[in-house]
Amino acid sequence: MSNGLYGIFNSNRTADDHWGKNCFNSSFPTSLACYMLDNNIKAIYITLAVKDNKLVIEPKEISINEVFNCANKSLHDLYFSFESIYKPYQQYSFDAIDGIDLVVKDINGNYLSPLEVKLTVIPTSQTSTLSEEKWGSEIVVRSATTSYCALGMFASIKESARNVREIFEDACSSIQMWDNDYEMTHKMPLLCQAIDDFQLEYYSHQKPLLMQTLWKTQGQSPILAEQAFDIVIWSDYAFSRLFLDHSAEPAETMRRGMRASARLARCLWELSKSGKIRMVDIYRQMAFGNQTDKEFAVGGSLWRKYVTPNRIQNLALKKDIVYQIIKPGDIDRLMPERRFDQTLYFTMRGKK
């Protein structure tokens, strides 16, 4: 615990940085993942599968070694770079790509895995009024996440670029103005079908993208549940279904999920043609009147339709695991401005 948190021995954050307002919500999940790695506790893995030639969400389990793509390396051999660019993806964009919450490298500088990190509570205020088996968590998605989703998908199948181009050609080549609301709402069914066809063919290439750490409270109270923590990993293909699954439905104007779907189709098509795109221009141009930093949000009830394992009702780690994740006394360093900080600060501090 050289940095006050379990397993983070090498990082671009100092021991003081971890407790900052915009840092703890990614440092703590990373530390929890390190604990699960050391103790061979697998995470929930939300994946995309094909059954009867149809795309379906399939929950599995995955080891943190696979999530970090670190093989048998020890935590002392890993370097956690927060809010950093995953440089292997830079080759696919003329302009600088965004950073992502966590880039896992080894101490020799080899890039292993890019991960978006979320720290979310279960239940949400909306699902807390339902029976416990229906409790869910919320995800607010940044545009950086969907851009990494597109880049990761292409990086995994770039040798098949010619075939990918053929999949998207009919749907994409006829589009005159990618930022035209009227044209794009009418082209969405074709674009979504092209993405479906792409995923039907290449879903076996999916890999972890989003690491969602759950903390569970006793309903809407600030008190941690006995089984308080777990990690849900979303593959890039499964994550994309959060915005794809309803984007082909008729609409008078482009919704956020439709925008994310159109951007994904355009990125994959243009990458398949030239291997390099202007990522920033695509995302800036295709705003459709919405803010560009927030891509979309998924509410608790919709989230629970994708995250179906019974394990959600009985999370893998007990609340007292906090004392092994966080160095004794360091909970006092939290600034109780956010709900998770408040829960730890007021209910776990000084009890051991």
N- to C-terminal distance: 17 Å
Tell me the number of structural domains.
1
Strand elements, count: 10
Broad structural category? alpha+beta
Portion in strands: 15-25%
Q: What is the mean predicted local confidence, pLDDT? A: 93
* Largest sheet features: 8 strands, mixed
Number of helices: 11
What order do the SSEs take from the amino end to the carboxyl end, as H and E? Answer: HEEHEEEEHHHEEHHHEHEHH
Give the radius of gyration: 20 Å
Describe this structure in words.
The protein is globular, with a radius of gyration of 20 Å. The protein has 352 residues and is an alpha+beta fold. The protein has one domain. It has helices spanning 24-38, 64-68, 143-157, 161-173, 181-202, 236-244, 256-274, 279-285, 300-306, 322-325, 339-347; strands at residues 43-51, 54-62, 78-84, 100-106, 111-122, 139-142, 208-217, 224-235, 294-298, 317-318. 36% of the residues lie in helices and 22% in strands. The strands form two sheets. Strands 1, 2, 3, 4, 5, 7, 8 and 10 form an eight-stranded mixed beta sheet that branches. The protein has a two-stranded antiparallel sheet with strand order 6-9.
